[in-house]
Amino acid sequence: MSTADVGPVFTLATGPVGSTPATRAALAQPVLHHTDPGFRALYAETVTLLRSAFGASVDPVIFPGEAVVGIEAAAAALIGPDDVVLNLVSGIYGQSFGRLAGRFAREVIEVETAYNDSVDPADVAEALARRDDVTIVSVVHCETPSGTVNDLDAISQLAAASGALLIVDAVSTFGGMPIDVEHWPGIVIAAPQKALGGTPGLSLLHVSDDAWRHIAANPNAPRGSALSIEGWRDAYRPDRAFPFTPSVSDIYALRSVLQQYLAEGPENAERRHRRAARAVRAGAQALGLSLWADRGALLADTVTAIEMPAGVDEAEVRSVARAESGVMLAGGQGPLRGRVLQIGHMGPAAYPMSPVIAVTALGHALRRLGAKADIGAAVEAALAARDVGDDDHGGPDSTAKTGSEPQ
Amino acid sequence: MSTADVGPVFTLATGPVGSTPATRAALAQPVLHHTDPGFRALYAETVTLLRSAFGASVDPVIFPGEAVVGIEAAAAALIGPDDVVLNLVSGIYGQSFGRLAGRFAREVIEVETAYNDSVDPADVAEALARRDDVTIVSVVHCETPSGTVNDLDAISQLAAASGALLIVDAVSTFGGMPIDVEHWPGIVIAAPQKALGGTPGLSLLHVSDDAWRHIAANPNAPRGSALSIEGWRDAYRPDRAFPFTPSVSDIYALRSVLQQYLAEGPENAERRHRRAARAVRAGAQALGLSLWADRGALLADTVTAIEMPAGVDEAEVRSVARAESGVMLAGGQGPLRGRVLQIGHMGPAAYPMSPVIAVTALGHALRRLGAKADIGAAVEAALAARDVGDDDHGGPDSTAKTGSEPQ
Amino acid sequence: MSTADVGPVFTLATGPVGSTPATRAALAQPVLHHTDPGFRALYAETVTLLRSAFGASVDPVIFPGEAVVGIEAAAAALIGPDDVVLNLVSGIYGQSFGRLAGRFAREVIEVETAYNDSVDPADVAEALARRDDVTIVSVVHCETPSGTVNDLDAISQLAAASGALLIVDAVSTFGGMPIDVEHWPGIVIAAPQKALGGTPGLSLLHVSDDAWRHIAANPNAPRGSALSIEGWRDAYRPDRAFPFTPSVSDIYALRSVLQQYLAEGPENAERRHRRAARAVRAGAQALGLSLWADRGALLADTVTAIEMPAGVDEAEVRSVARAESGVMLAGGQGPLRGRVLQIGHMGPAAYPMSPVIAVTALGHALRRLGAKADIGAAVEAALAARDVGDDDHGGPDSTAKTGSEPQ
Amino acid sequence: MSTADVGPVFTLATGPVGSTPATRAALAQPVLHHTDPGFRALYAETVTLLRSAFGASVDPVIFPGEAVVGIEAAAAALIGPDDVVLNLVSGIYGQSFGRLAGRFAREVIEVETAYNDSVDPADVAEALARRDDVTIVSVVHCETPSGTVNDLDAISQLAAASGALLIVDAVSTFGGMPIDVEHWPGIVIAAPQKALGGTPGLSLLHVSDDAWRHIAANPNAPRGSALSIEGWRDAYRPDRAFPFTPSVSDIYALRSVLQQYLAEGPENAERRHRRAARAVRAGAQALGLSLWADRGALLADTVTAIEMPAGVDEAEVRSVARAESGVMLAGGQGPLRGRVLQIGHMGPAAYPMSPVIAVTALGHALRRLGAKADIGAAVEAALAARDVGDDDHGGPDSTAKTGSEPQ
């Protein structure tokens, strides 16, 4: 059977995660000149929408460049030659940020945990107590390859108490799980192509007033460069100009997904992600698979990392799922390559049918590759876990691995 | 009259320049995951299309980032601490490149001419003779704010003869005027949102084998950074991965505009741009306006810079043209701000009616602001100049200011 | 020069007249099943929007079938074997309606005027006085091929006074000129693809309560047929079903154009059409052409019929305008074929630049065919006539040929 | 949970059945004037594509009007006052055609079978033997509400042998099951919104030369009416005009779906429909439900009719499936209302995941309404039945109820 027979593609990966008809309609709008008054107004409106979505009291920055670019730009801006960075590592992205911070900081120290676990706030407290010269704490909210989150509430309080600024990679949580930028002093980096369901190509930055001051005092912060975030700070104001041409169509899409997100309501969006997460986890386990995350880890509502049975290559599983079911999963990252794949359940990939589609395609691919998989049981478990949450209120179990998961 | 009364926007600016229905249909396609086999195949096809459009014997690089980003990345990659750069300056962009090169080079020397003129190849020859340690010659093909081009045929021969590599900003010519990357040793930077009629957000790089070697030998070339072009060199190959997520929708649009360009044929596209250029120049002059370019300058076929009458602010002219005619012009750059505006006649802004729309809106705005403008004469002149070229064969007069222009 | 060189098509014809980006975005939405609750709600909303646009106190009927189908269905429903129809003829469409009415009526009598004139209400009064058994008066509001309108205010009063029902073809006026369905007792037929700028394929019917009663009493009204309008009367109600599947995408487009129309406001839309009409008329006359309409005729704000110079075939003019300027005009109807073409200035063809584009393309084509045409003068005249109306208030001159037209 | 939570709508109904991205891109193209040379060429190309898709040696007719309109128009054209029609009735649509034929024919005689069965060709043979004055045999290929097909191969041979013309409603088979218009003398009516995945609003007619002669001889065939098919016969020819404006956007969509169908290949499309059909039937039965079709009936590959358990209203089931799973099913027709619903598995609703989505949503809704449903077993059965066919070659079992169905 050729790929052409498969028809629609269900993108249940870790971003991009597909797009709604409204988003695609936005993308199809005429490409205006970036100084066109129509575009200028639309851009300013988008900044306002993003501020609402962030729940922030300061205007955010729309930075032209995919999240990886935005993270580099944020790090380069915030981390100066006098800074000591405490980098929290619970996965591949945290590890990678440590290397990046090392290019700018006086010193980078790390608290590391296993890549299937979450950072223990007690370890953070201890590190901050040991080194009172830490000026910046860096942390990844959701380690996408691991499907785990770090406890930002606790970590941000510790950072605030020690007078350090935070730099938070909230790329794969924003839009699907609560973020609290007002209480996270520093910089938070998000992106449109994850739980918002937008296009890749932009970074969405919350920068607190303290962080702006820290940047202004950093002699090495990029200026007059493509990596400078300062030039984009006020670019939406009528009396300012864009440092260079923003990606017009990606801005159209961003405005649309923010409108969709705010119309749905953050709480509804979060509940929708919780339902999908519960269903995917239960379904994967009913297929006989193990979640990659350790029992003690905090689980993400936007992505689930799943360990393959011995002898089964996750890349082959994904290939078969795509070719025979039209379902696109994610995986293949760093040390987890070959062993762990991810089901993204964020944005347009987090609707009632998404988990059913995901576990069916996954189970079907496993069988093709000779593994056992009880697809019927997986679908039943996914539905049961999904629906049990119809009356939930986002309680404490929503990011906990144990408790509400039917097993 | 409110803006809403104006209806369709005719974007006759300097990029973005609007978009065709085919381009918008491409943008509206579902946002696939960047590792989706469908997207991977489409991306590889796009690289091949771009190579054809470049007329190149090596595969080009699609770099994620608007042209300004791509130019910075190219400069950072090519220009190392041992390089002496001869920077040719005939306008704002050339001047700006000198500052950029200064961040990376051992030394930057410049040949400068008035911003309404083209660089004289004899001056380049002299500079290269004087300084045989020049390793890189940098030049802007079309100085958009000035509407002028530099003589790349002559300059590239001089560079080749002296063993220097070129770094050419061909952003606002590629797709509308001939470029000859095979004979321009080094790096050529183009972009989709100019004469191709695509979206902003990508840079299109031709890098010769010699240039790749030079980059490899540059200890300071960005690596492991958002500004690294090396990571994108082979990213289209089945056995490679993208350094980070490319802007999926912008790639869709790029593929579409390259298909449209190749279907039209480069020669037809160039002739279309010549026709529009002749018409706009003649129309502007019949309005009683002066071209910004000096008589000796080589004129661009993609953009015309026009000086406003004394006492008339180009920003106001553009504002009125947009508000009352729905026509978006460009202007307001650097030292020319307030005095010189540009009519873009590139890509979807270079069709038979485009010059008529441009000069009518321009004339109408001038009148509103109290200046005299013979719109009827301008339309007639534009039509006459446009149509005289139906039998042209792209002869030497096509970029010359004198000769074929009806005045 | 091939057609491919021409680029964008400016559809300045008599319907369809192009489409806005918003309309095309609506068309691109997923095709829902017609019983889908999402589509049912959207359909009901569309009925409400149309009622607002009609300014009616009763719900309108969206009939699946282009205007010609809707007119036949309306006639078949309203005109029974006992009816005497007074058919007013001032052009091709009125003439054609007489033949149609003859299939259903006991007798059809006619008041006819020259096809470049409007029906004189005095003649209508006389006919109604002569024949007090007239039960239905049929009239075309705008005779598209002639560019003329009939005086519906006067005619509707006469019909009302005589107790006759009206059947009005308002297809090419609704959305661009005032209609007053509340004072036009009977049936008014409109369509989306004219001054609303929608797609062809639907008829929009206002049917008064009296008319519904007349239909109910007509033993020959189509029932259980594709031509039955009664089945669609209440089809939008939750407890009813569609007689058959409506054209889902055309409904999407209709909803969108109604939203656009109501957001602009009927008065603004009408003023926009008046401006375009004045400009086109003045421009055509400055090209040395005569309007087809007689001096005494009432002129349409949505379309202008223009007589070609002796020896020039209007079909050839249109062909050249399309091939060389990308401008699509209309013409070629009935006895006017070869002599008279129409410029449509309705919907998306009635914006400030539209008349300039129209008269330039028209003049250019005339020249190609050997006729003289002062395009510069025409553009100037069009602009002058257009702008003189910026302060108009829709006074009596708005549909009068004389007076405000600069000549 | 509100409808808004449900996200994407999976339209697994009986037409429209959703639309592919390519189809939606086609719909979003600018609305050209119907006489535009670009549209004329596109229309003519569409006629050629349809002829290929029909596998016909004569040009087909694209008739403006949904299938119900096209059937009425075809009947009105073909059936004259001298005709005796043998109408074969195996469901609601056949019954309805009998009433329609009665308006035009001298006499209508019928062969009727139970609505969950297929017409027995022996009964047809007997009827034709009894009445040698039958001139037209009318038959519905697929009775959508029943999910059954009639044996057109046998019936068409009988009709041919007796010299009668056929009138075949192939609306819900064309594109998903083989049709053989070349051996079906007479008229075959199809439509875009079923197995082709297009939009409603057009009828696609194959009319044999004999049928055209019969129409020409019918004094009552509609002429000069919206219901006349003769006017559209040659409308695509350069020297002809459209009787009235066709639905431009629906033609764009039709061209696109025909291109998609021919690119996939009729055999691949048919196999895809067979796979989906097997899967849906098996899944429904594993849910504990009965197919509506009798064991002896020939089953459609495009739609499956399923009987609800006692006490469960199919309308409620569909409502829940739509509200909680985003899945739109069909049902509610005539005497089957309340008891029997249909899953459409045609066009974009006949891909590998479609049956899984359908049976999961169906099972889930049944449970909500208090019925038992083993969803896990249903998904497993659907997958098993779907995949068993990967090596099938369209043998005789493909439309047979028994044999290949896992039970």
Low-confidence blocks of residues of chain A: 393-407
What's the helix count of chain A?
Answer: 12
Query: How many E-type strands of chain A?
Result: 16
Gyration radius over CA of chain A: 21 Å
Helix and strand topology:
The structure is a homotetramer of 407-residue chains.
Chain A: E1 10-11, H1 21-27, H2 37-54, E2 61-64, H3 67-78, E3 84-89, H4 92-102, E4 107-112, H5 121-130, E5 136-140, E6 142-143, E7 148-149, H6 152-162, E8 165-169, E9 186-190, E10 202-207, H7 209-216, H8 248-264, H9 266-286, E11 290-291, E12 298-299, E13 303-307, H10 314-325, E14 327-328, E15 330-331, E16 340-344, H11 354-368, H12 375-388
Parallel strand pairs in A: 1-14, 3-4, 3-5, 5-8, 8-9
Antiparallel strand pairs in A: 2-10, 6-7, 7-12, 9-10, 11-13, 13-16, 15-16
Provide a quick synopsis of the model.
The structure is a homotetramer of 407-residue chains. With 407 residues, chain A is α/β, with parallel strands linked by helices. The first copy, chain A, contains 12 helices and 16 strands.
Q: Can you characterise this structure?
A:
The structure is a homotetramer of 407-residue chains. The first copy, chain A, is an alpha/beta fold and 407 residues long. In chain A, 38% of the residues lie in helices and 15% in strands. The first copy, chain A, contains 12 helices and 16 strands. In chain A, a hairpin with an 8-residue loop joins β15 (330-331) and β16 (340-344). In chain A, α11 (354-368) packs antiparallel against α12. The radius of gyration of chain A is 21 Å and the shape is globular. Mean pLDDT of chain A is 94; it is low at 393-407. Chains in contact: A-B, A-C, A-D, B-C, B-D, C-D. Chain B binds chain D through residues 21, 24-25, 28-30, and chain D through 21, 24-25, 28-30.
